[in-house]
Amino acid sequence: MRNVPRPRGRTGAERPVGTPLPLWLPAGCALALILLPVLGLFARVDPARLPALLTSPTALSALWLSLRTAALATGVSALLGGPLAVVLARSRVPGTRLLRGAVLLPLVLPPVVGGLALLYLLGRTGPVGAVLEQRFGLTLPYTTTAVVLAQTFVAMPFLVVSLEGALRAAGTEHERMAATLGAGPWLTFRRVTLPMVLPALVSGLVLTFARALGEFGATITFAGSLRGTTRTLPLAVYTEAQADVDAAVAMSLLLVAMALLVIVVARPRAVG
Amino acid sequence: MTRARARSFPLAVLLTAVLVASGCGAGARTEGTTLTVLAAASLTESFREMGERFERAHPDVEVRFNFQGSALLAERVRQGAGGDVFASADRAMMNKVVRAGAVAERPRTFATNRLSVVVPPDNPAGVRALSDLAAEDVSVVVCAPQVPCGAATERVETVSGVRLTPVSEENDVKDVLHKVEAGEADAGLVYVTDAEAAGKKVRTVDFPASERVTNEYPIATLEAAEHPDTAEAFVEFVRGDRGRRILREYGFGTP
């Protein structure tokens, strides 16, 4: 951006740089690809049945479960992923770069693969799962805890990445200044670092929540699908689509509505 | 980014988008006949062999399969996703397609199937009968009632009087099988043919009520078929002597 030659006028605002024409066609295609399917979803809605479908016990139980698990996954991400972001941004230990890459793994992996990985680690026959079951009588698959774990696995990187980026962009200038004024590391963290990256933290949390809400592949693979326990909204959409498409579409609208809400809340900070 | 650009982004883009949308994607057909068969997940192994044999008899034809839950396939057909032949795991899903006017002729039953209990090879919960599955500490995985194997499972519950409290309701019979194979469930209800296909990876526990709940598998050529004659030939092949022999090999009943 800085290297683009400025127009003769004093500021760019007086003579705005136009959008090159050749970009419009692919841009239009891209927009169509994003918007048309969602519009198609609305076109498929049966208005007469919609209120009943939206308030059906199946939809409500899935919605409630989704909100609960996504909120928990966001909480776990904040508690664990937040500190991880700080460590990755500030630590000078060799190998940090590698770790930074590893954190991206769930973002790139297909969620089903994540689900399988969780299953083979924490399932009844997995190395960790078997110990949990024999020592503590804990079985993770098919539980709501498994849903939260799957969602955290897939969604936490959003928080780590956005927070880590903000921390590195902010630099350590202010923190060092606080240190010279006699503040300890913990006080500096609370009074200087945290307020500095608060916007990134909030938008990261909202994105994490949104990703957790939409989680499907890892959940169905690791946690299974049972109404009220593990069948979150996306899973319910998939199951209902087998029998009653109108019900599936109605539940999809719930997800679209929540996605829009998230965009409205988070967008200015995340994108702007 | 800059305010000027944001303002110069008119709604007309959306209209342009709608106009060009049809030009954005296009498909091309290759030479030779490609037959697309949509078949229930439980037909995976038997229809693969069916396809190989059919291709040997018709060298210019390539058979391509789409194996998924019947309910999912039925919905795809109803939405006009195309395909030449549809083979469903029960009549309910085929009827859906028939009501939508998407089949070219009356569906014909070509196979029957029934359910069986499968357990991991070491049978960790010591399951010996269907009634054992009702115990609280036995984790059971079944198909969701929305799909054919789940509908059959509900009928088994009615006929046998055994009430199941599954830990998970899967969308496709293969998912149930995989959970049991992986040892992540003590027992699952799958078709006898799936149990057979899994070989030594699972153990089968037969139960009397299973005989009284059979699924009838109908097959039909689709209205949207690109190769109606080849599609009809495939249906005849499946229903003919060679097809029936293959189906029986894989554990299906034949009418």
UniProtKB/TrEMBL annotation, chain B:
The alphabetical list of record keywords is: Metal-binding, Molybdenum, Signal
Task: List positions binding molybdate.
Answer: 42, 70, 173, 191
Picking any one GO biological process from the record gives: molybdate ion transport
State a single Gene Ontology molecular function. Answer: molybdate ion binding
Q: Which PROSITE patterns match?
A: PROKAR_LIPOPROTEIN
Q: Which residues form the signal peptide?
A: 1-26
Query: What family does the Swiss-Prot or TrEMBL record give for this protein?
Result: Belongs to the bacterial solute-binding protein ModA family.
Name of this protein: Molybdate ABC transporter substrate-binding protein
User: Which species does the entry assign this protein to?
Assistant: Actinopolyspora mortivallis
